[in-house]
Structure formats: C-alpha cells, structure tokens
Amino acid sequence: MRVFLVSLITGILKDLRQVIPFLAILVAFRVYDVGGYQVSIYMLGLMTLLSMFAHIVRRLLFKGVDLEKLYETASINPVASALVFAAIAFVYGTLFLATAGMFK
Fold first, then answer.
1. Domain shared by 79 and 96, yes or no
2. CB within 8 A of 89, min separation 6: which ones?
3. Cα–Cα distance, 12 to 46 (Å, whole number)
C-alpha cells in the first residue's frame, strides 16, 4: 500500500510540473483582466482543474495502466497511432464542447 501511495504521489507531482506554466498563465489572466476575457479564461481554468481531477481518478482506478508504455507501442504501430490520435481528438472535442456549453 505504501509503495502505491508513493508512486501515486510522485506521478501526481510529475503531472503538476507539466501543467504549472499553463496554470501560471491562467492566474495571470485572472489577476489582470485583458480585454474582458476573464469569463472565458475562468471556464478554461475550470476545465483544466476538472481534467486534472479526472486524471488523478484514472490513476487511482486503473493502477496497472501505464500510458507511457502505450505511447511507445503506438509510435511503432500505425494502427495504434491512429487510435491514440482518435482518443486525443475525442478528449479535446469533449473539453471544447463542455467549455463552449458553459457560455450559454
């Protein structure tokens, strides 16, 4: 159990290091209102936080799935590359629709 918690925390910290520049930009836009874009930036920030939460939940529920190994496999096989591309496009499309749906 202890090994799992340590690996989970190190994985979360690794993921947070990758999103820190994006979060810094969101904070800068939140503090300084650039042309009245605070609402859209707030929605993008909210979707970013929800995505991070979903990623942590995925790590908790599916401990054995290593996405780096899947990525390496996808770089070898063209069909796997197409599936990875479709999955990423689906996730981005879902985030875009969720963010655009908040504007109503």
1. yes
2. none
3. 18
